[in-house]
Design brief:
Helix content is about 80%, strand content about 0%. The chain is an all-alpha fold and about 425 residues long. The radius of gyration is 21 Å and the shape is globular. The two termini are about 25 Å apart.
Amino acid sequence: MPLFNYRFIELIASKTKFKKRFKNLGLSAQHRILLATALFFFGMGFCFASWASRIPDIKTFLNLSEADLGSLLFAIPVGQILAMPFSGKVVTRYGSNKIAIFGLLLYAFFLIIVGLSDTVYSLALSLFFFGFFGNFCNIAVNTQGVVTQQLLNKPIMGSFHGSWSLAGFSGALFGLFMISLHLRPFVHFILVFLIIVLIVLFNGSWLVKSKKVKKEDQTDSASKNSSSFFKISDSNLIWFGIICFCGMASEGIMFDWSGVYFKEIIKAPENLVILGYTSFMITMASGRFLSDYLVVKFGSKKVLIYSGIAISTGLYIAVLLPHLISCTLAFMLVGFGVANVVPIMFNAAGRSEKVAPGIALTIVSGISFLGFLIGPPVIGFIAEATSLKYSFALIGIFGFLIALIVSRLKISF
């Protein structure tokens, strides 16, 4: 059974009725709504990047082995999975604008709790809730993006996700600054929380408020889609999911392990440990903003093939040439590669002619999310048994697998 349920997003997109203040908006009001939504995406990415930037310090503070860290990283997706069965229903019932506000605040709050954790067990529990409320935040903010796109009647989701990636870069730079000041993760995360509070205070009122969907409309929509939800009538969706799985596993290793790689394999100076993660986020953010242009110019198939090659090439350069400059350039290559995979494949899934868009996204994202789910512990256990370089070499295969599958699929993306 798929892990994600995006059916409620499809329901919202087709049934939304906007309140009076959001009808007949002027240009300045439209821009303000766009900015508010983009900043919520930014805040979500800033929280995650802040956590990722301090993983090496937390690992050292708690004296964790690679296997220990891998097991602890498992707590985040477990929290996300346990929130999935009802997060969509909560967003639909109470409104994406309200849940986006509470979700983002709780996401940032539990980041502080992560910084306070001084034992393995307290860290595991805090990471679980970090993932749990992160799922609510993710679903609500993405739903808000869909509703905003419908209200303004123009394609803007790509730029919203670009804001998330830009936040990853900004969060990495902010983390680098905090490390240079020798501030503890706890102090760092309090400052992040204050930034999130400011985002909510100045932008929460500009999130789009829509009327509740009638219960009978929800029932009708569910009945129309229930027959195809459990039966996959488009086999290409499985391949799309596998491609996304490879992309998200590659993305996950960079989020969780790039800092550790620079610290333990590259032996980078303390103030440059985060350089690998920062360089990765720079090109991933740039690639997300350039994705639409590249697809128009070269076509989705070519972009995906070269993205897969870029992922593998970057990871193997990092393995074979474990030096500061070569690894920085290698991680930039990986960032540019992973930037295009998920957006292109999710877009392709949403255009399936055999399966409703919400269900198609459920299938593809459910398979792909396993990349984040099993990636952290697998990397940790392999690194513990051999070396972190072998773990990176294993994930490096996924990029070539993306290129191979895409080249063999006889469809147009």
